[in-house]
Amino acid sequence: xxxxxxxxxxxxxxxxxxxxxxxxxxxxxxxxxxxxxxxxxxxxxxxxxxxxxxxxxxxxxxxxxxxxxxxxxxxxxxxxxxxxxxxxxxxxxxxxxxxxxxxxxxxxxxxxxxxxxxxxxxxxxxxxxxxxxxxxxxxxxxxxxxxxxxxxxxxxxxxxxxxxxxxxxxxxxxxxxxxxxxxxxxxxxxxxxxxxxxxxxxxxxxxxxxxxxxxxxxxx
Length: 220
Hints:
The chain has 220 residues and is an alpha/beta fold. The chain contains six helices and 14 strands.
C-alpha cells in the first residue's frame, strides 16, 4: 500500500516537532510555530513560519556532548492524568506536551487527545481506560506505536482492528516507513466504553477544516 504524501502543513509541523525533540527549539517557540502552522493556508505561509524559527549555531555542537534536554515534567517518575468524569477532556486545538507516562481515563465522559499537536518524548507510555465513556487517541504516522488492549464488555479499535464482546484481547503495532521519531506504548482497557487508537498524518481538526468547502460570499 502506497504511503500518502504529506501536505505542506503536515511536513512543516513534522519538521518543527523534530527540531524541538532535538533540543534546537524551546517549548514556547515550538508552541508559537505550531499555532501559526495550524492557521497557514498554503505552502508559502508554512515556509514563512519555518523561516521565523530561531536558529542556534551551538545546537549541533551541544548535541555531540550532551543529551537532548527534556522538560522537567517529562523527567518525573509520576503519571500525568487526563480525566473526564462526567464531561469531556480534550487536547485537539493547541500545542501541548505529552508526559512520559500518561493516564487517559473516561468514566462517563469523553477524552480525545491529538498527539500530532504534542511535543513527544523519545518514548512514552499511555494507559487509556474507558469505564462507560470513550477515549480516542490520534497518533502520528511517524511514530512507532504498540497497542495492547483488553475489552471486557466494551470495544477496542486498535489501529483499525477491533476487539469487543465479552472479554477479548488485542495487540497491534505500527512501524513507520522511516526511522521513528518516538515510540508510543499504549495500554488499553475498555470496561463498558470504547477506546480508539487512530493513525493520522496531521492535526485532526485542521484536516477537517481544510476538507470543508468555504462558503461563498453572498452578493449585497
